[in-house]
Every structure is written in C-alpha cells, then in structure tokens.
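Re: weekly structure request thread

Next one in the queue (142 aa):
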Amino acid sequence: MATQIAYEDVEVGAELPARVFPVTRDTLVRYAGASGDFNPIHWNERFALEVGLPDVIAHGMFTMAEAVRVVTDWVGDPGAVVEYGVRFTRPVVVPNDDTGAVIEVSAKIGDKLDGNRVRVDLTATSEGKKVLGMSRAVVQLA
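Done, posted below.
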C-alpha cells in the first residue's frame, strides 16, 4: 500500500480529521494480551491505588498507538510514517464503569520537509488534559 496524498497538495497548518478513541478496562486487557504488558497498574485498581495512581491507567504505548491512528488513517498507509515520537505527560485514567475514558486526538501539518516528507504535530488529550507532549510524526508522501 502506498500513500495517495501528494506532497504538493499539502499545506503547513492544514488540519487532519480529528478522532476520538474510547478506552475501557476491556480495551486494556485486550491490549495487555496483545502486547504482553501485564503490569497490574493497567488492570488492577487496588494495586494502582497502592502505588499512588488515581486509578487504573492505559498503557503508554497504547495511548501512543491510538494517537498515531489519526496520521495513518489520513495518509492511508501505516508504512508512510517514517518517524514518530512523543513524551508521556499524563496518564489516561480508565475508570471501571461502562464509559471508561476517551482519548481525543487532533493533528495538523507542522512543516514541509525535504524528500516529499511532512511533519505532523499531534495533540492528544483525555479529560481535557494533554496526555502526550511533543507528539510528532514524519510522513513520506507521494
């Protein structure tokens, strides 16, 4: 699969379609099984509270992966993402109810780079607070 987005058609400041990602305890258990990360802070409320967390929290890598979906959905080819990095600024707290938590992600073109690449700047929040800082992806365009 290759991106169909042409470098010359992209402008700095252009916004990508924003996304909202629900996260429940079930989501975390499934991610733990897929990733092999069974740290009890991601599924055991008592343990999370004992170590000073407000509740069970989402895996950092899960949060990071959900955020970059805005970019991969936009570009149409996950392989077009040639760099991706974030700073974890705040955990996504996932209560044990029918709602869970929500990760809201927006993104915009931050810069046009050499070689038909663009830098995409992402903003990820949960409960109105930023959960990822310095979240940036470099994407190879056609």
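Residues 60-75 form the longest helix (16 residues). The chain has a mean pLDDT of 96.
Next request, please.
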